[in-house]
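Readers of this paper often ask what the protein records in our data store actually look like. Nothing more is needed to write down the fold, since each code stands for a local backbone conformation. Below, we set out a record of this kind in full and without editing:
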Amino acid sequence: MPLSAETLRDLHRRMLRIRLFEEEAGRLSEAGRIPGALHLYVGEEAVAAGVAAHLGPGDQVTSTHRGHGHLVAVGGDFRQMFAELFGRATGYCRGKGGSMHIADMDLGMLGANGIVGGGPPIAVGAAFSNKYRKTQNVTACFFGDGASNEGSFHEAANMAGLYRLPLIFVCENNGFGEFTRQDRHQAIRDIADRAAGYGFPGIVVDGMDAVAVYEAAGEAIARARRGEGPTLLECKTYRFFDHVGVRGMGVVYRSDDEVRAWRERDPITLLERRLAELGILDEAGAAAVREAIQAEVREAVAFAEASPFPDPAALTEDVYAS
């Protein structure tokens, strides 16, 4: 069934919000205005948008070190996000978490994670809770190709399959584990093949096509809500920026030609072309959406820079949960 105009516009807006947030975060980081390392999601927007469009109240997301896009996709607030990146008290984690620990429990975003493969065990716990409480909620677990080699992923997949948990494993396969090409760190081509060992389906989808991700994720999430267990959704995608930051650490591990070839399949450009062909959104309409989001970005950055740093007296608050 063809997607509605409303759904297609929603996918476009989610992706564009991620892109413009991340591009601004990258500029601020390169200018030395944001402390610490940033792992940017530029190029991979179709994955988060296509999955998040199916999530609702009570659903959960576990993320990665490259987690800004996941939070934006489920409705993250730009002001709180930029404040967190600036280390300010008005941030999501009161300025004490930063990029790799950003979270919003009200949106079901259980947190970005600085540990490779740290998300799957948390996702299993959330999904087990959903099943135990007999809800219709699902958990989406984002992770990369490198994390699929970690024992934590395999233990989580085993438990999810055994207990038929309402869990979608979303592998964002961008072709590299940090700086190591996939064929140098694993013997398989399709990570989705690993699902067979745990008794649930594995599906490969074009991660640069928001519609393809949306459709595949919709089937996997509906299956989970029906109580039929997990699915491994492997999205073949690519990050346009380096592993860390925009220009990275000067490590040469991919060619300029390769990056250019993937940029020609920019997921936002591809969707905008489709929307124009369908008469849903023309160039002027797309520009208006972009400008509205840019204004939101500018206002959020101003808010963040005007916000106070955390009070040193609050250093030990929020370390433990009571």
